[in-house]
Specification:
- Helix content is 79%, strand content 0%.
- It is built from 10 helices and no strands.
Amino acid sequence: LIYMPIDLTVKQALAKAIQLHKSGELNEAEQIYRAILKLEPKNSDANHNLGLIALSVGHLEAALPFFEQATRENITFPQYWISYIETLLKLNNLKLARVCLDEIARIGLDPTVLAAVRSKVVAAENTARYQTLFSEMINFFNSGDLTNALKICQMLLVQAPAGAHCLSIIGAINSKKGKINEAYAQFKSAV
């Protein structure tokens, strides 16, 4: 049962839902937001706030359609884009986050917001690249291809000079090659 007080306008109902939302009465707020969407399916505030409620209870996937609708209906409101892109990043959907970033650049969103969002997307992309290379390095190491494992370790150390994992792997590679002093130095640096 979706409830919205009969005597309220959509604007008043939205204000009531926001008040309930802020006070932590999520179920009641959600009911009113959903009632608003029955009357105005494209209401960007109700969509965005339903997305926020979904996030607050850990339903990241469920939040996406609400954020997407909010950005579609009000493309110049920065918070809608921030919520949408941050959720995409949490879900590791870097491709769509990049598409959204390009879209907010195209529409000319506030440069400060654009820079903040860009730094989050770039950081997530860099982390993903690092993790991919790290996995490749582990696979090479486990298969006995120490030369390629070492090459990747050295690349990873350029990105994260104090990377204890890579230093440990280099130590293990040197140990397997009989280079005990070098292995010791790498293990010591890793700690």
